[in-house]
Amino acid sequence: MVTVSARLHSITVTDIGIGTRVFEAGPVRGSWRRLTTPDDVLELMDTTAEGVVACVADAGATFLAPIFDELAAVVCLSGTPLSHIGIVSREYQVPCVMAATLASEPADGDVVEVDCSAEPGVVRNLA
After folding, report:
1. What is the mean pLDDT of residues 44-67?
2. DSSP state letter for 105
3. Alpha carbons 124 and 17: distance in angstroms, whole number
4. Cβ-contact 30, 72 below 8 angstroms
5. CB of 87 closer than 8 Å to CB of 65
6. Separation of alpha carbons 114 and 124, rounded Å
7. Residues 37-51 as b or e (16 or more Cβ within 10 Å = b)
8. Radius of gyration in angstroms for the set of CA atoms belonging to the chain, rounded to a whole number
9. Is 111 helix (H, G, I), strand (E, B) or coil?
10. pLDDT tens for residues 22-50?
11. Among residues 84, 83, 76, 66, which one has the least CA distance to residue 114?
């Protein structure tokens, strides 16, 4: 992985991960949130999942279904574009990076960018 840092208008942009993009999509930004259980999704349903970049470990996870249309992007740590998460992300046109490897994982709430404009897809931390 190539690490790139740039300081733009008081924002440091750092490439922190790469993976297989599910489909071509321009960069989107959102608030990082690691989701591991259905309870995490229920918590977001009580507030909003709008603008959230969801990080999930399991490519077969179905618990994102109730909030998928609100998500800014999905970063999945396993699977392929033919996995459940990949299929649903294409259906909802939510940018998605599969089998992502992260050099470091952002904290919940950090602003990140998911860029699926080229292969591989890139995850960036914006600080």
Report:
1. 93
2. P
3. 7
4. yes
5. no
6. 6
7. eeebbeebeeeebee
8. 13
9. strand
10. 999 999 999 999 999 999 999 999 999 99
11. 76
Domains and CATH numbers, the chain: 10-126 (3.50.30.10)
In this prediction the pTM is 0.90
Average pLDDT, the chain: 92
* 3-class secondary structure per residue, 16-73: EEEEEECCCEEEEEEEEEECCCHHHHHHHHHCCCCCEEEEECCCCCCCCHHHHHHCCE
Q: Taking a C-beta distance cutoff of 8 angstroms, is the pair 97, 114 a contact?
A: yes
Tokens describing residue 3: 């690490």
Structure tokens at 66: 């109730």
Please tell me the distance from the alpha carbon of residue 127 to that of residue 118, in angstroms, as a whole number. Answer: 23
Q: Which of the pair, 11 or 77, is modelled with greater confidence? A: 77
